[in-house]
Amino acid sequence: MGPLQSQVLLPERIAGLLGLSGTAGQIVGGLLGAFIIANLLLVQTAVAGPWAKRKITAAFTDRIAVNRVGPFGLFVIVADAVRLLSKELVIPDGVDRPAYDLGPLLVPFSALLGFAVIPMGNGIHLADPETGLVFAFAASSIASLGLVMMGYASNNKYSLLGGLRAIASNIAYEIPLIITAASVIIFTGSLQMSEIVAQQAEPLLTLGGVAIPQWFAFVNPFAFALFVVANLAEVGRNPFDVPEAPTEIVAGYQTEYSSVYFVLIYLGEFIHIFLGGALAATLFLGGPAGPVLPGFIWFTIKIWAFYLFTQWARSAVPRIRVDQFLDVGWKGMLVLSFANLVLTAVIVGVIA
Amino acid sequence: MSLEEPTPDDGVVEALPTGGDEIADLLGDLVVGREEHMNAPGFVIRPDDVQETLRRLRDEAGFDHLSCVTAEEREDRYESIYHLTSFDDRQREASVVVPTPKDDPASQTAEPVFRTADWHEREAYDLIGIDYEGHPDLRRILLPDTWQGHPLSQNYDKDRPQIVTLKEWENPLADDHREEEGDTMYVNIGPHHPATHGVLHVKTVLDGEQVVDVDPDIGYLHRCEEQMCQSKTYRHQIMPYPDRWDYASSGLLNEWAYARAAEDLNDIDVPEYAQVIRTLGAELCRIASHMLAVGTFALDVYGDFTAIFMYAMRDREKVQNVLEELTGQRMMFNYFRLGGVVWDLPEPREDFFEMIRDFLDDLPEALEEYHDLITSNEILQSRTIDTGVLPPEVAKSYGATGPVARGSGIDYDLRRDDPYGYYDELEWDVVTEDGCDNFSRLLVRLREVEESAKIIEQCVDLLEDWPEDERTIQSNVPRTLRPDDDTEIYRGVEAAKGELGIYIRADGTEKPGRFKIRSPCFSNLQTLPEMSNGEYIPDMVASLGSLDIVLGEVDR
């Protein structure tokens, strides 16, 4: 297994390469690093949104999907970008500006902000504060605010219903999500992302000469399952598609958004799925760790695996009703996540 | 089992009056005149005796199914005809004829006796102009509220400008708050909404996430089908229209409705060979239609991009290919003719039979897949079981038929109860489920696909062995059909969505004097408020999907 985590963070390394030091180095390195990471994600989202999503759903539903423009239809990404951005931006009467305009901006940027603390392997890691995990959750939660703004400011009843549903789902599922993450913190004793990843590199057991690392998904699979389910609700995919629910409330909070705002919201959704995958990977799957291939490739594989999972759920699982959705959140997930936390604490306390 | 008549409970049914005289005795003084319709005895009553007459017929003579209400304007009077029949014995029929004078076309409403009369009378008021006294909500139903005149009345001036536009009459941008401090919210679901399966507008009042009241607003797809049929000749010109009522692949079923009514009216025989082909084609259409229903229902419950929808479309496509081979068309088949079908099976026949057999061989596996994906899915079960409940009594009162009625445990299927075509020679079962909920209706459709497959298989066997010199596809029908003046007939067939009935009054010319379509979706859609009031929005959407309406047929 190669070095998991270079101790040098991305901004420092850029500053070093540019020969800058001190405050100027920090600023330039930080900006350039953020630029690189944001672009890495935007490229992945561009592939995921207009192309991979279609191909994956098509595979699940016995279709072919885009195959006309470019190899495997890949250039449809360009065509779609042009198409979407050249559409008319329709702003309905009576919308509440600037909330109407800020909402779609908050969604993608909150998710991007979360990626600042995610170790993506091969030294691609923007910042590593001691409160890393909390920061990631806090940043991704800002999106809820954006959804509420969109729902409330759109002057549309479907948007309002969607916005309300979005808040309800965020409150109901964010608590189990974070409580479950806290059960990992009991193992690590640190909120620092690099520390969480480093601890998972320790061997759990050795089978026939192959060391199995102590990824927390192996140590506590139950917590991993809980986390993935709560994450599914966070990113709003079936069976927790309730805030958007196209056949019920048209498109929920994004009903009144077109053109570039529509793109921003979609972008945000996909980056959120990737952030969900990144958090799951960092907390439970050893971050960028993996045999043979470089860390960054492993990291990408892991977040795409989560993306694939969300699309699979979307194609195959029915949406639950809004009251059942909240029941599952408050009566099921919350109880289970607390049980998991207490049990983990007891077991760790007894062993340690 | 299907071949037997429903066995009457020892003598109870026999005690019910069936003959015209017996019914007339029961009604006594209420009857002021008698008519003879080709399908049923007609009883003329006074305009203010409607409720009393219908109630007596329902409670004492077992006529519990108000199949249709036909209104028309005659030379000297207006007329409302209530076509009554029974869910237990479809072949018992009675027509209640209510003439009203030209200068004051007002008669008592039947709504308190049969809930289904609500919409049927609104339609009669809208198109003909008869006033139903005591009707709870006598608004226009198909045309805009501002429409001037009644288009099917005789003095309707089609050149009269429709000056009052809806925009002037009702400001679409006006505040729609009912009151300042209200707890409810009014939402327009449709006419453009992902879940309305067409241009349906459901006026919905919500209390939080729960539906307080829904009011389906229809008519967006009204294309004057009845009037168009009235202006065409019986022989060839009307047949293309039925394809356009329920266009979601039940074309042949619709054509059969017209064929049956017109053939009985003109006393035309259909050769047995053609009957088998008709049965085969009709059941193929039923499978295609049910596949679409199951797929779109899954869309409503799952959300977009669901696998089951594409699977259903894939299997429907196979049926469509068979139908295309048979009729040359994929949607607007126009394959039936009065007295038979337009042409024989495609050559080479072996290939055609093999195509059908291939489809039938794959079908059980496909259905297994559906059951894996939907009916045995726990989330879907939790979504659909005990939601959209429609008790059998309510369903009967609303005149619900087809899978909607059978999902409420009503054992009613015209193919068995009022046999036509080749159905009574074949081995198959009527499917019922008594859950009365969305899940039951879904299950009924999936199981009916199996039954249809059985019928098709038997038809293929029959057609394969049919002697070559007996393959008559059409009987000898005169070039011009001119049924006698004043003959009236009401005939139904079991379409994919339920009882599709046609009423024709001949006026001695080669065109119908009155052509009335009893659309199953129209009656079924009426049950929506009954199923969804008090439920959550998602359940309302699921209930709407489970009704499987096609707006082309609702609005005609």
TrEMBL record, chain A:
Gene Ontology CC terms: membrane
A Pfam short name: NADHdh
Keyword list, A-Z: Membrane, Transmembrane, Transmembrane helix
Range of residues in the leader sequence: none
GO MF, any single term: NADH dehydrogenase activity
Entry superkingdom: Archaea
Topological type in the membrane: Multi-pass membrane protein
Keyword Nucleus: no
Single biological process term from Gene Ontology: aerobic respiration
TM region(s), chain numbering: 27-52, 64-82, 102-121, 133-153, 173-192, 204-230, 260-285, 292-310, 330-351
Predominant place of localization: membrane
Subcellular location: Membrane
HAMAP family: NDH1_NuoH (MF_01350)
Protein name, entry field: NADH dehydrogenase
Originating species: Halobellus salinus
TrEMBL record, chain B:
Topology versus the membrane: Peripheral membrane protein
Keywords: Cell membrane, Membrane, Multifunctional enzyme, NAD, Transport
UniProt domain NADH:ubiquinone oxidoreductase 30kDa subunit: residue ranges: 44-159
Gene Ontology cellular component annotations, sorted alphabetically: plasma membrane
Alphabetical list of InterPro entries matching this protein: NADH_Q_OxRdtase_suD (IPR001135), NADH_quin_OxRdtase_su_C/D-like (IPR037232), NADH_UbQ_OxRdtase_30kDa_su (IPR001268), NADH_UbQ_OxRdtase_CS (IPR020396), NDH1_su_D/H (IPR022885), NiFe-Hase_large (IPR029014)
Gene3D superfamilies recorded: Cytochrome-c3 Hydrogenase, chain B, NADH:ubiquinone oxidoreductase, 30kDa subunit
SUPFAM superfamilies: HydB/Nqo4-like, Nqo5-like
Residue intervals of the NADH-quinone oxidoreductase subunit D domain: 306-556
Listed GO MF terms: NAD binding; NADH dehydrogenase (ubiquinone) activity; oxidoreductase activity, acting on NAD(P)H; quinone binding
Reactions catalysed: a quinone + NADH + 5 H(+)(in) = a quinol + NAD(+) + 4 H(+)(out)
Subcellular compartments: Cell membrane
First-listed, main subcellular location of the protein, grouped into a coarse class: membrane
UniProt record similarity statement: In the C-terminal section; belongs to the complex I 49 kDa subunit family.
HAMAP family noted in UniProt: NDH1_NuoD
Subunit structure: NDH-1 is composed of 13 different subunits. Subunits NuoB, CD, E, F, and G constitute the peripheral sector of the complex.
Name under which the protein is recorded: NADH dehydrogenase subunit D
Lineage of the organism: Archaea, Methanobacteriati, Methanobacteriota, Stenosarchaea group, Halobacteria
